[in-house]
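INPUT
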Amino acid sequence: MSLLSSIGLRTSIIDNADGSAELSIYNNNSNEASSSSSSSDDNSIIKLITSINGPIEPKQRQELPNRASLEINIYPSIGLSTTKEKLLENKLRSILQNNIIINYKYPRQLIQISIQFLISSGSGSSSSSSSNYGSMMMNLLDLNALINCCYFALIDANIAMNYSFASIVIIIDHQGNLLIPIDGNDLHQQQQQEEDYESIHLCCYSIIAKKVDKLLLLESQGDFNESQLFNVLEKSIYKVEKFHNEIHRQFINDKIKNDYIWKQEREDE
Amino acid sequence: MSDTIILPGDKLPIDEDIFTVKTTIGPGIYKKPKTQELIPSAAGTLHYERAKSSSQQLIYIESNSKRYIPHTNDYVIGIITGAIGESYKVSLQSNSTPVLLSFWAFPNASKKNRPNLKNGQAVYARVSQDIPEIETELECIDPTSGKEGGFGVLDESGYIFDVHLNFARELLFNPKTIFLETLATRCQFEIAIGINGKIWIKCGNGVKKEANDGSNNNQDQGEDQEMIDVSEENLKDLKSTLAAATFLTRCQFVTQDKLKQELNNAFQGI
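OUTPUT
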């Protein structure tokens, strides 16, 4: 199921997990992708699966007396987990642990989150990974996909949450223009021209009553000044609210239709 | 009563003055301890009930899940996994925190007359205490009559399988559910439905082991024929039990106009 032209989403794909989600981020320009050797078969740039189990019985060292403890495992698409995955885990934990999940509902319990990248950004292009700018952008794009996929998996697992959340990545090029990957721009082309980018920013917001409420995470890398940062924040708020009102709504509508398909007399489609 | 789809972070369409209007909250609604504000904590279908003339309102969110969280007065199917002091340790779901079933939680139980349950046996019980900070407790006593009331040890010749929690609620609380009525047109069965997503089912004699295995060496033709008949009957019951479980599992994923088709597929060859 494809919600928009650039995002693919599936949930409840793992039977043994309480909640699971698979998120794919595609190239918009299929013509250019087919002519490039770095393109993968399903035309994805980033693809990952998140599974969540919980609340379950914790190990004694994980137990917290009046809150749920969180276990996060991140596995890369190539090789073994390294300090990069540990960094992603710490950033994800800073968002989920005390902000989003209502910990006090599950005292002395464990919520287990496992994330497996199937395709990482830049994994198909060996030249870009050697670039300093390239590795910065790859990390933030992976983190962005990981945060959004966790939201869908948490909804699927029915974990209690204070509010919804969504994250977005914005790139500033040398001319000072703001570019947003997966939103009308061709990310594949940008990867090949990554030397043109001055900085990259990731913003993750909480959403209450369909409006952006708090900034949960702001991760910036590269050279930028204060006015550029405020421009990034201003533009990202609009994009995140649009993401929530379109993709999150569509996702929950489809999920409820699938969960209660046995209530329907016949297929709608 | 209105049904709308709601996400965490949305604003609840209720009377905000929860101190004047008596408000009852159900699953999916969370009352913030600091601000006393009601927020939706789950994504699903919002159910809101308020009588016109009444000063009371009820609100809850219905959603599907696979992980069961015990609540008082739920009927559950558990597996005995051990004994601690004067209680049995019962598992309601794999990897979940175990719950306790006291030796005294049976009808007419006393220190001298205690139940004799072994590891691996299945019990149908009612949740009697669900304080989140301490261990949940079960009972096998009907709270009104003080007798069994259908609770207790489940027959070992039944078959236990898992379903989603919302489907289990439909089977248990909807007395006219189409799924059990459709199944009843095909075979007779006994069923125990646990809100924790486990269902125990048995058709006829169920999946019982061969009772006369090699115990009768009599060469009399009549008794041999009788043994063959018993064996065939047991095999038919075994197939029916598994087919019924397969049918109920498939019901979760199809619309109602395909029930007949799924029933025929499950009972094919029986």
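end of record. Chain A touches chain B at residues 18-19, 53-57, 66, 102, 104-109, 155, 157-158, 160-164, 206-210, 213, 248-249, 252-253, 255-256, 259-267 (CB under 8 Å).
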